Structure formats: structure tokens, C-alpha cells
Amino acid sequence: MQRTVMAHLECVVITPVDIVLSVAVAGGPDIASESLTVTVGDRPVEMAEIADDHGTRLHVADGLAVGRLVVDYTAQVSSLGPPSVSRPVDLVRYLRPSRYCESDRLAPVARSEFAGLTGAPLLAAVSSWVGTRLGYVPGSSRPIDGAAATLLARQGVCRDFAHLVIAFLRACDVPARLASVYAPGLSPMDFHAVAEAYVDGNWHAIDATRLAPRSTMLRIATGRDAADAAFLTNNCGIITLTGMEVVAYTDELLPFDDANSLVPLR
Amino acid sequence: MQRTVMAHLECVVITPVDIVLSVAVAGGPDIASESLTVTVGDRPVEMAEIADDHGTRLHVADGLAVGRLVVDYTAQVSSLGPPSVSRPVDLVRYLRPSRYCESDRLAPVARSEFAGLTGAPLLAAVSSWVGTRLGYVPGSSRPIDGAAATLLARQGVCRDFAHLVIAFLRACDVPARLASVYAPGLSPMDFHAVAEAYVDGNWHAIDATRLAPRSTMLRIATGRDAADAAFLTNNCGIITLTGMEVVAYTDELLPFDDANSLVPLR
Amino acid sequence: MQRTVMAHLECVVITPVDIVLSVAVAGGPDIASESLTVTVGDRPVEMAEIADDHGTRLHVADGLAVGRLVVDYTAQVSSLGPPSVSRPVDLVRYLRPSRYCESDRLAPVARSEFAGLTGAPLLAAVSSWVGTRLGYVPGSSRPIDGAAATLLARQGVCRDFAHLVIAFLRACDVPARLASVYAPGLSPMDFHAVAEAYVDGNWHAIDATRLAPRSTMLRIATGRDAADAAFLTNNCGIITLTGMEVVAYTDELLPFDDANSLVPLR
Amino acid sequence: MQRTVMAHLECVVITPVDIVLSVAVAGGPDIASESLTVTVGDRPVEMAEIADDHGTRLHVADGLAVGRLVVDYTAQVSSLGPPSVSRPVDLVRYLRPSRYCESDRLAPVARSEFAGLTGAPLLAAVSSWVGTRLGYVPGSSRPIDGAAATLLARQGVCRDFAHLVIAFLRACDVPARLASVYAPGLSPMDFHAVAEAYVDGNWHAIDATRLAPRSTMLRIATGRDAADAAFLTNNCGIITLTGMEVVAYTDELLPFDDANSLVPLR
User: Are B49 and B61 in contact (CB under 8 A)?
Assistant: First the structure.
């Protein structure tokens, strides 16, 4: 199977700015070809690559000038990657509460709703709880909203679904983290986010939105929550996103995903 | 200068439990001698050491039996450590909002209160703002409270002071993180927490509580906030802390700390 | 049936203070005898009575001197009162969100959990939901916590149970309010708080704690939430409550309360 | 001076709905002429008038049919009204925290920022603090946001400015409430909201937005906060506001308002 992905961002830099891009596919699978070009006012911008955990590849540039910023990324990936390797510290770290996955604050709800469940049945129960109780409503949440806000609002987008799944799982003592992905089959196409949970010695993807099959998703960034996986971050200056297009497809028919089986991101 | 530290914890394990201890001094300075013993019901518990970032050394054990848990740690440190080394990803990561340092949510306040300031003057201004507006009131905050709650409550303990400093600095585009430390001179003696900020190519300690000199503090854990630095974490079971004693002293007179100079943790 | 109630409060006035007491039984039933005495440093304090809505009787005094404040209230009530009369504005007002009953914020949860229910079955469902999902844990909540905090914490005391019931009902378009009461049979004895909901032309008491029979409760204050019913409020000064005793009993056997029948406060 | 006001609302009733309108000028000044017409699908709707506190006049109708709802209100007011009369209970009630004015939660900030101030200087200081620290940004706040959210966001619209003023004043022991008003001179014209504070025996208007002169404002509703003063509330059904126009003018030149003088709503 070959997976092809593209991302096109258009922004206006209002004041000189440092940017961090998280659009490149993570290290792991074989990348047959790849290209990242960034321009400001039609002049190319040199991006430095920084390695974050789990193969995450960030691209950064400081002091971008005021003007029109255009990002074009494309990659062709010709294999599945190996299963995600877990260091001992990961199993400690991904039990900790994080900015948008306040598992400490949500522990009373999680422990009450999912009492007695562990392992794969717990994952299925949490995914079903979140998927059936939340409405998928584009624009309904704010960037500063975390899982506690989502629990009350009963609606959100993919990152909110993932945050609530992660918070519930951590509160039930299951290491859980967020992965941003390219998701063939997603409609409307966009960057996507899913939860990953560590059960029986492996990390498994959980997508409570059920909007795309998990086995063909292609990992971008991996971390505690959306704070570790924003596709574009601006520091020291102001930027406005004016347009965005994401493409992701495979050269094979998309598989059926029954949602409750254990599926790794590859 | 030689620094001697000790920590003694007494707990009751209510149901079988996994624990993560973060009491050992971080790698870096020369450790002349060190001992960690953990017992449950007078039987010794084998602890595994896990490396977290920045030299942090966690000690973990799973499935501790019900009973009385006692932790004894002591170390003698005979040198200052080297300055903290910063990887490129650290300067990106420690600008991100975190569980207890919601720099995204606090950005409007931070940018208004500290407009126009950068570098060392910004650090001094933030430290002074937090130190003069917050009251140090033991027991006034909850473990789930972050910097936004502290900003409204205008009181807290060392971790709350550190969280608010960190959140403000990140919102002002300064990488900032939390370090748990042994702090000779602290009174009453306890585990302590300070902020660290990256300015002019180095990490500098900020202690808005001004309760102990920074140059003799001894680093334990380093991370995004208290979620990465709790001295005792329990997973999969219930534990009650029933007693605690911390000791930290040096073989020299404690230095005067003028609070606004740039001082690294060594 | 005759109901006898007593309240004894001991406080220390730290700085000169204005106080509002809400300990007197509300107008309505026949009050056979009643006495309120307030002293500061053994000198009697003249209290002025102020009428709040629904027969609520507040007692206020301004500029109390520093010293030991003692409040003694007792009343014997010899009849049931008439049913609570509802003005048209009450049915509008008690649908509005209030400080501790954030029905606007809790509407997504309420409308999802109680979809399709109205009238008495809705009251029973809300009472049961709150009563079975919350733990009654003295000291677990803070005075500034409202229903949203209670929903996440899954525990609280009588006022928290009442606040969550009220918030859910308002979100489901049922006028609901809080009543502070003397509650014969409550153990341990204390001031108590219940919700009241307007269904089928009358106000009915809902006590999700099920700690005392509703039909023998004696109304003190009635309002939007605990902000309208605190037994002691201090303004312009500082006060510390150092002791409290509440007594409430009837001259008949306490009735059995099946919790789901419609019972008015009389 | 004669004041002329008009309000025109267009809505779509999605499901049968009960509505509460708060658009009529409050009782007090001489109303020379007045008209309220409400239609659904071009059929007139009979509105019942309900008296709320302080002369507030609500207009309600239940069971409105699905269709296009149009509200037209106009009034000509030919005199200033008498000063607002205060009952004893008002001075107690308007010290209480309310849904959007969480004076209990904001007390630490208020008491720190305004320590030592009372009376008119306190009112001026609070008005100035709020007016200079908040940005007036239409669309920046949500209906469920209260003063604590506004304090962190540092921006809002007129109701947010008023809520923060009210919360601060109550925390400083000054009775404070919200009034919705028609505000000649406001640009762009809209419904407006201001705080009222009780000082020296009278209620004074505080408009931290400084967007219109206070002495020509015309009171609509008066209450604890926006929960008591929404111009349109829907219960038991769904409604969408599709258009709105507000007009307010006087037959004289608008006065200059120096913002810090004590000005009542008349």
C-alpha cells in the first residue's frame, strides 16, 4: 500500500514571527519521496528540522518577515511503519495529566463510569461513551478548551474527542497519548487527531469520531495532547491562517474499520 | 561545597498499587554517596530506575502490597553540576501550555501586564509580580489547581508560585519549566519547586517565594510542571501519605540571594 | 404536629462587621413561640428583620464590634404552612441560571441525560441521577463551587446535591429553586438544603441526599441557590465560625419518605 | 428632554417555544406613547406583561408556533424618572454573588487591587481599572462567560464590562447590580448594559465602556446580572435570532459624560 499526503497552508504574517510546523510524516515507515517548501512573500524560507519524541519531526524558522506565508508539504509513503516502540518512561509519562487531558480533574467521572473495566473492553467502552455522547460540531470548541470543557459541552471536533478519550483512560490507569495524523477517507478532509492507548504491550489507536479507518492513518506528531501536535504554532509574533487544504489517499481501497478492534498506527 | 539531603516518607497502601518516586537528585553533579530504601510492611521493595528528561531519575515499583510503606532516601552531593544542556526541542516544548501552566489561557493577562519587557528584566518583573501579589498560604490550594486558579485565588504554595511564573513567561515567549529541588535554608523544610526560564542561552532559576537561596538548591526532577515532578505518584491503587520529613543542608554558610540576579540550578 | 427547632452559633468577630442571619423559620406556618438573641462580648445586639421573597426573614446588624459573637435561635411551630404561592415572575426567574446553578452551562448534559422526560418522572429521574452518582462527603466541596464543579467532582454535601438538581431541572425548562430548612431526622443534625421544583401548579421538594423526610422539614430561606440562603453572611469585616449546633424535632414519629412522591415544603 | 427608542427583532422559531421579552422601558419616567407588537408568521401574538423587581416589565407568551417571529417595540418617554427606590433587602441581595458576577471567586483580586478605597473613589477606580484593562471586542465572549472568564480574557462587550465592575464592587462590600438600557449616542447602536452601584444612599450608573452618556440612558431591566436582563429568552423550544435593530435618541444635544461623576439612571 502506498499513501500520498499533501498539506497546503496560507497565512498572513502580521508581525515578525517564529513558527513551528508539524506537518511532516513521522519517522518510521519508508518515505519514498517528500517535499516541504515554505515561502514568505514568494521568497523561500529555510526551515530547520527538530526531532521531538516518537519520531516526530518539527520544522522551525525564526524571524519570518511580514507578508504572505505559504507552506506546501507532500510525501509518498511506501510501507507501513514498525509498531511504536515504548520506552519505560513513556508508560509513566502518559499517565500524567496534561493541558487538555485533565485526567486528575476527570478521575471521579472516569472511575465511576468505567468501574471494573480494563484492557481492550475498557478501550471499547471509553471510545463508545465518547463517540455516542459527543456531537461532532465543527467550530463548537475553542483552542483553549480541554477535556473537562468538552465533557460539559457534549460536542467538539476530533481533537476534543481524542482529549476526552485520553483523559478518561489515564484516569483509569491506562497510558494514553495523542497522535496527529493524515487520515485517508476523512470527509471533509483535514488534519485529524486520534488517541493512542497502551494495552497488552502495544499502542493502539482510538478514534471515537469513527470518521476514517485507523489502519491507513499516517502519523505526524505524537505527544501528550494537542499542545504537542499543533500543525502550526507561532511564537514572538502574530500570524493569521487564511487558507488550508489537506489531501490524503491510498492506492488501495480503504479498509472497513469496526472501531472496537485493536489497531496500531503504522 | 557539599550538600546533604534526606527524605523520609510514610504511607499506608490501601489497595495494591504501582508507585513512582521522584526523590533522587538528578544526574549532573557528583554524587558522593546515595541510598534509597523502600519497604512495605518491613519487607524491602525492589525499585527500578527510569530515566526521564534532563537527568531526572524516577524510581518505580508495581503491585505493592497493602500495608505500611516507608521510603528513605539520602544523598551527599560533592560538587556543583554542569549547566543544564538544552536540546533544540526543549526551546519549543517549554513554550507549550501544560496542565498546570495554562499559558494559552493566561496570555491576555501576561501580555498586558508585561508588555514591552524581554530577557532578564522580564524575569525580574514576573518574579516580583507573582511574589508580591500572591500570599504564601500552606494548604490554600488543591492538587488540581493550575496557574489560572492561582491567579484568581492570589495565594498558594511553592508549586503555585512556580506555575504562575512559568505560565506568564511562556505567554511572553520565554521557554519556562518547573524543577523540583531540595532547598537548603527552606523553613519549614519541605520539597520545594521553582521555575526555570531560558534567557540568553541558559536556564535560570526563578523562585518567586524567595524562601531559599537558589544557588544551593539541588535539582530532583525537571519538566513542564508539577505533573512531571510529583515526589510520589500512585497508579492502579490507593495510597495515603501519613508522614513526611525532608532535610537539606550544606557544609557552608548559605549565600544571600538578591532574587533578581540570574542564577542557574547547579 | 409540632416542630421545634434551635440553632446556636459561636463566632469570633476579627474586625468590625455587618452580618446577615438567615436562621428564622419563614413566614407561613403558625409560629407558637420564637426567640432570637444575639450577643457580642455578652452585650446584646439589636437585630433588624428584613423581608426577602417567599416569606424569608433575614436578621441584620451593622458594625458589630470585635469579640465573641453568639447567636441563639429557637422556635416552636404548631401547624403546617399553606402551600407556597407562586407569582408569575417566579416561573420566569427560577428558570434563569444562577451563581451555583449554572443551568446554561449544564444544559448539554441535562438535555442529553434526561431527554424526553417531563413533570414528575423528570423530577424522579433527576433526583435519582444526582443521588446515585454523587457521594455525600462532608468537607469535600468549597463554598465557591457550583453545580458544574459538583458534576465533575461527583461528591459534595446537601447544598451541592441541591444545586445540581436545580441546574439540571432549569436546563430542562422546569422552574427550580433552593430552600434552606430545618430537617427533623437529619443525622448528623445540621442546617439542610433541598431543591424545589414547580410542576403541575405547585412547588415540590426534592432531596437527592434522602437524608431526612421532606414532609416535616421547616423552611428557612428560599431563593435561587445558596447565595440566597446562607445562614450567616458577613460583609465589610472578618468573622470566624468557631462552633455551631442545630436541633430539629417533631412531637410525632417521623414519616417514611419514598423520595419519589411529590411532597411540598409546609 | 424627550427620549425615543425602538427595537426590532427578527427570529425563526424552530420548535414551539415560550418566550420572555425584556425590551419595554421600565416603569418610572412618564411614557408618552408606547407600542409592542409581536407576530409569528404574520399572525399577532398576545403578550402578557409580568412585573419583575424595580419596575422591570417582562412580556411573555407560551407555545409560539414554528415560523418567523417579529418583535417591534417603540416608546416615547417625556420625562426623567424618579431616582431608584431601594428596599432594605436590595442592599443585602446585591451584595450576593450571582451567575455572571462571581464576587466570591473574585474577592481576592478585588480586595487586593482596590484595598483602602470606598465610596465614589472606589467606583471611579473600579470603572477605570475595567475600562483600561479590557478591550471592547464584539463577538469575543460567550453567553455563558462571567466576570472571572472576562478577567482572564481581558476583553468582552458591554455586559462583560458591567459584570466585572459589579463583581469587583460586591467583593468590596458595595451593593451592585446590572441594568439593561437604551443608550442614545451608542455607536454602533445596540442594547446596552451598565452597572449600578449603591453609594451614599443612591444608585449610580457605571459604564466602564464609556460608549454613551449615562444621564440620557433609559432603563429597561434591572437585576443581578445579564441572567435577569436578556432582551429575549426562549424556554421549552428553539429559536434563532436572524436580525435586530435598536434605535435610541433624544430631542436635545447629548451631554458630555466625564465618566467619574456620580450619575443615576433616570
Answer: no
CB contact under 8 A, D133 and B152: no
Percent of chain D scoring above 70 in pLDDT: 100
For residue C190, report the phi and psi dihedrals to the nearest 5 degrees. Answer: -165, 175
Q: What is the pLDDT of residues B153-207, one digit of tens each?
A: 999 999 999 999 999 999 999 999 999 999 999 999 999 999 999 999 999 999 9
Q: In terms of pTM, does the model score above 0.95? A: yes
Is there a cis peptide before residue C188, judged by omega within 30 degrees of 0?
A: yes
Instruction: Please report the ipTM that was assigned to this predicted complex.
Output: 0.97
* Chain A contact present for B97, CB below 8 A: yes
C154: which 3 cell numbers? Answer: 461527583
Taking the CB of residue C69, how many other CB atoms lie within 10 A of it? 26
With cell 490550594, the residue in question is B141
CA angle (C161 as vertex; C155, C165 as ends), nearest 5: 130
Alpha carbon separation from C98 to C187, D195, D221 (Å, rounded): 29, 18, 17
Residue B156 phi/psi, 5-degree rounding, is: 170, -165
Q: CB of A23 within 8 A of CB of A73?
A: yes
Q: What is the mean pLDDT of residues B111-120?
A: 97
Distance of alpha carbon C11 from alpha carbon B25, whole angstroms: 48
List, in sequence order, the alpha helices (H) in A69-220. 88-93, 107-113, 119-133, 147-153, 158-171
Grid coordinates representing C200? 403541575
Q: How far, CA to CA in Å, does D191 sit from each of B102, B140, D52, D59?
A: 34, 41, 19, 17
Give how far Cα C55 sits from Cα of A162, C38, C220, Å: 51, 22, 9
CB atoms inside a 10 Å sphere around CB C93: 22
CA–CA distance, D227 with D99 (Å, rounded to integer): 7
Query: Average pLDDT for residues D37-66, to the nearest whole number?
Result: 97
| Residue D165 to residue D206: CA distance in whole angstroms | 8
User: E strands within D118-191?
Assistant: 135-136, 155-156, 176-182
- Helix H segments across C69-146? 88-93, 107-113, 119-133
- How far does the CA of residue C122 sit from the closest CA of chain A (Å)? 20
Residues in B closer than 8 angstroms to A50, CB to CB, are 88-89, 92
Tens digit of pLDDT for each residue in C211-258? 999 999 999 999 999 999 999 999 999 999 999 999 999 999 999 998
State the DSSP code for D120. Answer: H
Query: Measured between alpha carbons, how far is D23 from D2 in angstroms, rounded to an integer?
Result: 18
3-state secondary structure D47-94: CEEEECHHHCEEEEEEEECCEEEEEEEEEEECCCCCCCCCCHHHHHHC
Asked whether C157 and C141 are in contact (CB, 8 A), the reply is yes
> Contact at 8 Å (CB) between B86 and B203?
yes
Please list the alpha-helical segments (H only) found in C142-261: 147-153, 158-171
Q: Does B8 touch chain D (CB under 8 A)?
A: no
Torsion of CA C199, C227, D192, A152, to 10 degrees: -70
| Closest partner CB to C143 (pick from D18, D48, D104) | D104
Neighbours of A50 (CB within 10 A): 18
Please list, in sequence order, all residues whose beta carbon lies within 8 angstroms of the beta carbon of residue D132, skipping any fewer than 6 positions away. none
CB crowding C149-183: b at 16 or more within 10 Å, else e: bbbbbbbbbbbbbbbbbbbbbbbbbbbbbbbbbbb
Distance from D143 to chain B by nearest Cα, in Å? 18
- Is residue B23 within 8 Å of B16, Cβ to Cβ? no
Are B58 and A102 inside 8 Å of each other by CB? no
Dist CA A47 CA B92 (whole Å): 14
